[in-house]
Amino acid sequence: MARRNQHSREELQTLAIQAVRDLVSENGLEKLSVRKVAERIGYTAGMLYHVFANLDDLILQANADTLEQLLSAMTEREDVSPRQRLDRMARVYVSMARDQTALWKMVFLHQMQNQAQVPEWYLQKTAALFSQVEACMASLAERQTAEQIHLAARTLWGSVHGIAVLAADDKLVVAGDVDEQAMLDSLLQHYLNSWAGEK
Predict the structure, then answer these.
(1) Are 66 and 109 in contact (CB under 8 A)?
(2) Hey, CA dihedral for 77, 69, 187, 132, is it positive or negative?
(3) Where are the alpha helices (DSSP H) in 42-145?
(4) Furthest-apart CA atoms within the chain: distance in Å
(5) What range(s) does the HTH tetR-type domain occupy (predicted)?
(6) Which CATH number is correct for 54-195, 1.20.1250.20, 3.40.50.2300, 1.10.357.10, 3.40.640.10?
(7) What is the domain partition of the chain in residue ranges?
(8) For residue 138, which of 176, 83, 88 has the smallest C-alpha distance?
C-alpha cells in the first residue's frame, strides 16, 4: 500500500469503501465501525472523518457500489423483450442475494443513526433500479396509469425480494424446498400475464 501522504482524497475514499465491503463480507454489518475501517487501510479514524461525514456515509457509499453493480448486471442486455429483461433482472437479483449475501443484505438492513434522513443522492440510486422495472411494466400494459405502474413495479419486486431473502438465508425449505428459479418463473409468468391482461 502506498504511504498515507501519497493517497488523494478520492483514492482514500476508494480504499475505505473497499474496506467496508471486505469487512462486512467477512464479519457482517453489525461489527463494522469507522475504527475498523481505518485500521484495515492503515489510517486513523480521524482521517476518515475528513472524507466521510460518519459511519452512515461510509455504509451508503459502499451500498451505492453494490447498487451500481446490481444495476449494471441487471441491464447488461437491453436488446430483449420486456418480459425477458424482467426475467434477467429477477435472476440477477436473487443470484446476488445468494453469492454476495452480506453486501446484498447491507443495502436493506442498514438504518441511519439518530433517525437521520437518507440523502437524496442515495435515493436516486435506488430509484434507478425501480425505474428499470417500471419501464418494462409500462411496455407490457401501455394503458396503465403512472400510479398503477409505480405500484405494480414495487409489488412485483417486493415478491422477488421475498424469494431472494429466502434464498440468501437458505430458508427455501420452509416453502416446501422449492427451487428458487421455479418460484421466480411462476411469479413472473402469473403476475405479468395478469398485468398484461393475458390468459
Answers:
(1) no
(2) negative
(3) 45-48, 55-74, 82-99, 101-109, 120-140
(4) 65
(5) 10-70
(6) 1.10.357.10
(7) 1-52, 54-195
(8) 83
Query: Per-residue pLDDT tens for 127-178?
Result: 988 899 999 999 998 788 999 999 999 999 999 999 999 888 887 766 667 7
Q: What proportion of the chain, given as a percentage, has pLDDT over 90?
A: 66
Place of cell 421475498: 162
Per the CB < 8 A criterion, the answer to whether 164 and 97 are in contact is: yes
Q: Into which CATH architecture does domain 1-52 fall?
A: Orthogonal Bundle (1.10)
Residue with cell 425505474: 131
How far is the CA of 163 from the CAs of 52, 174, 178, in angstroms?
A: 34, 11, 11
Decide: 23 and 37 in contact? Cβ < 8 Å. yes
Q: Per this entry, what is the length of the chain?
A: 199
